[in-house]
Amino acid sequence: MTPPSFLLFCLAVAALACSQASARIVAMSVSKKHQRPGRPFQVHFRTTNYIANNDQYTIAFSLTPINHNDGKSLGSSPFQVSDIRHVNKRPPGFDVNVTIPADYRFNNATEYLHAAVFGTVGASGAVTVDYFNTTLIVPRTPSPSSASSISRE
Questions:
Q1: pLDDT of 69
Q2: CA-CA distance, 118 to 131, in Å (whole number)?
Q3: Residue ranges per domain, the chain?
Q4: Residue 124: CB partners within 8 Å, gap ≥ 6?
Q5: Distance CA 129, CA 4 (A)
Q6: Spatial separation of the C-alpha atoms in residues 66 and 76, rounded to whole Å
């Protein structure tokens, strides 16, 4: 008869093999802080140097006026969702193309670019959301902020 601890070990290895494992996103940055609506730019996501039992699938982007940032939410004006299921997430990281809609209106010259990264962790598949943000400088326009429809990349 097989010892119970060995059976538990085999079950744990099987569960780990069935779940996803990849490097986890730990930071977000942009190479240029000045961005114009309607023009694509790259957002860099830095990943960890170790592989964890998790996978991150989707990134939602949003903008928020600089004086309304709490750092723990997606922000007030979502505008793009990017599928990262097939992106190589190995360190040092990867880039995602982002375009602020051309008809987007800003109150402030400086806005926070937010990213909410959705994924799962562990054999249970528990859902995770990690928030990142950085500042962007955009042309000031007279119209108040308005949310544009979300685009898919």
A1: 62
A2: 9
A3: 21-152
A4: none
A5: 36
A6: 11
pLDDT at 70: 66
Average pLDDT per consecutive 10 residues, the chain (153 residues; last block may be shorter): 41 42 88 90 91 85 78 80 91 94 76 91 86 84 46 42
Query: What does the pLDDT read at residue 10?
Result: 35
The two structure tokens encoding residue 110: 């400086």
Is the bond into 4 cis (omega within 30 degrees of 0)? no
Q: Which residue has the tokens 């995602």?
A: 96
pTM: 0.75
Contact by Cβ (8 Å): 129, 110: no
| CATH pick for 21-152 out of 2.60.120.260, 2.60.40.1930, 3.30.70.1290, 3.30.1300.10 | 2.60.40.1930
